[in-house]
Amino acid sequence: MRAAMLILLASPFAVAAPVPKRAEKPAAELKLSADPLVLEITIQNNGKEPLELPYRVMPLEHFTIELRGANGKSYTIPRLGENVTDAKPGILTIPPGESETLSLHICHYMPQVGKPGEKFTVAARLKLGDKVYESKPLTVDE
Length: 142
Known about the structure:
The chain is mainly beta. The protein has one domain (25-140): Intracellular proteinase inhibitor BsuPI (Immunoglobulin-like), CATH 2.60.40. It has one helix at residues 2-10; strands at residues 28-34, 38-45, 51-55, 63-69, 74-77, 90-94, 99-105, 120-128, 131-134, 138-140. The strands form three sheets. Strands 4, 5, 8, 9 and 10 form a five-stranded antiparallel beta sheet that branches. Strand 1 and strand 2 (38-45) form a beta hairpin.
């Protein structure tokens, strides 16, 4: 038995089983939570460097936020801060391994997708340079 094992191990045809690669986490992840009035977007920095979002008015200007009503109507919230004149630029910095939560009052946009009391689904995308990070859609029941 030992001789057979040695021959097999010494054989040039012996093939080692490939080690499955662990799927790498994206540099940033978006997680959504909401009640009928407020959407919270949590940005998790999985990278090894600080994640920086330079902004002109607010960090939410990097996001595309879409709402879809139960009736099929959809609405994309306009880029926030486009028409603000008293802009206060800054940088949102998220250290490696940490997260930051941003809030948005979505009640202002609800009439675009449905009536009060209807379910709606929300999704968010964050564009950073040439990368786009998407959240899983979240369905909210008013």
